[in-house]
Amino acid sequence: MTVPPGADEAGADEARADEARADQNRADEAMADAERSRFLLQQMLRVRRFEEKCVELYSAAKIRGFMHVYIGEEAVAAGVLANLTPEDAVVATYREHGHALLRGVSAGAILAEMYGFEQGCCRGRGGSMHLFDQATRFFGGNAIVAGGLPLAVGLALADKMAGRSRVTACFFGEGAVAEGEFHESLNLAALWQLPVLFCCENNLYAMGTALARSESQTNIALKAAAYEIPSWQVDGMDVLAVDEGARRAADAVRNGGGPHFLELRTYRFRAHSMYDPERYREKAEVAQWVGRDPIDHLRTSLEDSGGLSAEQWNDLQQDVDSEIAQAVEFAEAGTPEPVDQLTRFTYSDRSAS
Ligand SMILES: Cc1ncc(C[n+]2csc(CCOP(=O)(O)OP(=O)(O)O)c2C)c(N)n1
């Protein structure tokens, strides 16, 4: 076979073009990854700053009643919720300000709710532990430990019966594992192959009780696997790991794979609630986990890889600060529900007709 003149050069040109395309693809991917990471960083920061403000307002007696903050655990809600669609449903616990915020309930409506004002997402009737918002399919805010699991199973059953391709993400603490509802819910979800994404926020303590003091088996993913549910343990302090694990699990649930279970290993940096002397854990242990702060961790790694400039970080903080300042202004201008409205919703409006 005779080689036409210039064929070598043509082949080399093609190889160079292939290489350039591959370089470009890698650069595009790196840019998309950095953008996704900055988005997740901002989501975590929104939750952190919002709750720091809540603590301040609680100390000023603007917010009263029980209040539980999520500070330290933000990577879990940020990573999981980034993988849901608006049609999906979310069920959470009483430590749910961040889940509501990232689901799309406005910071103002959440804060006004915590102030007990009519402008809150539940007209001020729920407070910190009972946030609820139909528009964003945020189904609480459940104060009963493990109480959200059967609700999630019911929502998923309705979706399955109606042939809807939706996911119900259910967040709960590892304390829920000691409740019968946990086992009943996992069993039915597996038996009926329901589209639930179970997200166990394992922060190692249920109030003052360490997991190892109450459970013979502390590997919670293993317990879920006993119900034939695909289950993984994920580093809940690494938002990129949560994002990746949640994407795989949520895709599988959405595509008819039945329930999936994520055990997200995390830690709360603050007390269980606003009233907790924290006599059950050593300060050194807390300090060690604070050293793994998911926000600091991602920020530093992004800065080191050139994915976050000083200007981008400043802009991001400013956006978050102004969102929170507006929320405070909104809540401060709120008003209590008029007394003559208090029996509203006690009986169905239909009973009048
Ligand atoms: C059925 C029930 N029992 C007891 C309580 C009291 N209680 C409130 S929070 C809590 C600890 C729950 O811990 P965990 O589920 O790990 O969630 P975390 O607070 O760590 O997020 C307990 C026992 C409750 N709310 N509901």
Describe this structure in words.
- The protein has 353 residues and is of the alpha/beta class.
- The protein has a domain at 68-92 and 138-333: Thiamin diphosphate (ThDP)-binding fold, Pyr/PP domains (Rossmann fold), CATH 3.40.50.
- Helix content is 48%, strand content 9%.
- The strands form 2 sheets. A 5-stranded parallel beta sheet has the order 1-2-3-7-6, sandwiched between helices.
- Helix 1 packs across helix 3 (97-103), helix 2 runs parallel beside helix 9 and helix 5 packs parallel to helix 6.
- The model has no long low-confidence stretch (mean pLDDT 95).
- Thiamine diphosphate binds next to strand 4.
What is the gist of this entry?
By secondary structure, this protein is of the alpha/beta class.
Proper CATH architecture of the domain at 68-92 and 138-333: 3-Layer(aba) Sandwich
Could you report the average pLDDT, rounded to the nearest whole number? 95
CATH H-level superfamily title of the domain at 68-92 and 138-333: Thiamin diphosphate (ThDP)-binding fold, Pyr/PP domains
How would the global form be characterised?
globular
CATH class of the domain at 68-92 and 138-333: Alpha Beta
Helix tally equals 12
Helix content: 40-55%
Low-confidence stretches: none
**Associated small molecules:** thiamine diphosphate
Give descriptors for this structure:
five-stranded parallel β-sheet; 12 helices; single chain; 7 strands; globular; alpha/beta; binds thiamine diphosphate; two-stranded antiparallel sheet; Rossmann fold; 48% helix; 353 residues
